[in-house]
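Example (one chain per record):
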Amino acid sequence: MLLFENLVPVSRTDAILKRLLKLHPKLIDLKLDREVRLLERIGNPQDHLPPVIHVAGTNGKGSTLAYLRAFLEASGKKVHVMTSPHLVRFNERIRLAGKLVSSRKLNQALEFCEQANGGEPITFFEITTAAALKLFSEVKADYLLLETGMGGRFDASNVVARPLGTIITPVDYDHQNFLGNSLDKIAWEKAGILKRGAKAVFGRQRDEGRAVLVREAARLGVRPLIAGEDFDGRAEDGRLVYQDERGLLDLPPPALAGPHQFDNAALAIAATRHFGLPVSDADIARGVREVVWPARLQPVHGTLLQMLPPGSELWIDGGHNAHGAAALALALQEIEARRPLPLVLIMGLMNTRKPADFLAPFAGMVEKVFALTIPGEPNAHAAATIVEQAREGGFEAVQSSSILNALADAAKLGHPTRVVFSGSLYLAGHVLHQNGTPPT
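Predicted structure:
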């Protein structure tokens, strides 16, 4: 969890959030009883929402929701969105009818839920989810795009009994200490968002995960659409070509960088069609072209880029597990093919992941790794740990004491480079704040 004072000046919102963090000794405790209790006290807002599209998975949840939002907004619809974590300000987690929630509305909702909870144990994510649901129930919108925080079955967002549809993005290994050490157990947790009577769409899955998801869907009488079987999307001549039983769509390339974004866009298109959303092919084309989702292989311009030698590039990416690292490495290979530059990774990682696993896909690609301890994160790997595992993997790696020092060290290499901040959305948030370009 980001320590809010490390990102922005202390505010009333920060003070409220700090109080909420103290309501439960554990940051994560996957149950639903505390959430249900609080929701009953505040009038069960989950029963008074616009049509809900609920998304779970290991990677690609936020990007898939970003495409859906772009499609719906291109068609003129008002869209609520809940995602996590935030990068710079907590407000980023909640969009009301397309706009980030104001601090005034957010504070009122948080304090209302705090008072209703009466000091009883509840996790930070549970009580902030309750506040978000209260806001979504009070502001008129056409749809709500709802992202799980972790898992699905016992996630605080899994309180909507009758969603319009559910999406499960690719399932892979992550958060094993909470979700289980096998892919079938993780997939079972993700499958918990499936609901009888709600249509479902699955992203591309490993065989073990696919078997569990299909079994759980069948148990509920749900026949899902599955990427690679019922629909697909691919890059062709620089375009996105989407295909399902209704035919082909020839679309602009996704505005989000990386080959994995063709899969994410295709998943969102399949959901749009399968759920019967009022979106035209022209709306889809516009959404693919105009979609925005910060810190997903995002180029950075301005103050921080100016610290590097002329001709350099600066990127941030929030991929934080082995699956995300593989997607990032593949995307950087494509970028390298278009414009060769030596690659430098500035890396910070939470201690629930192994640096060696994250770095493995970059073997033979990286000139140097600069390791950071993510500021303000007690559960971050020490920079020394990242350096040790990087060197064991054959990488040249050194510690840096801060974002600015890491960039200064990269500049000392003396030639144009492609510098990528990687390993954590929390680190990406600090970079955006340092650059003065927070998400809006």
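Caption: The chain has two domains: 4-290, 298-435.
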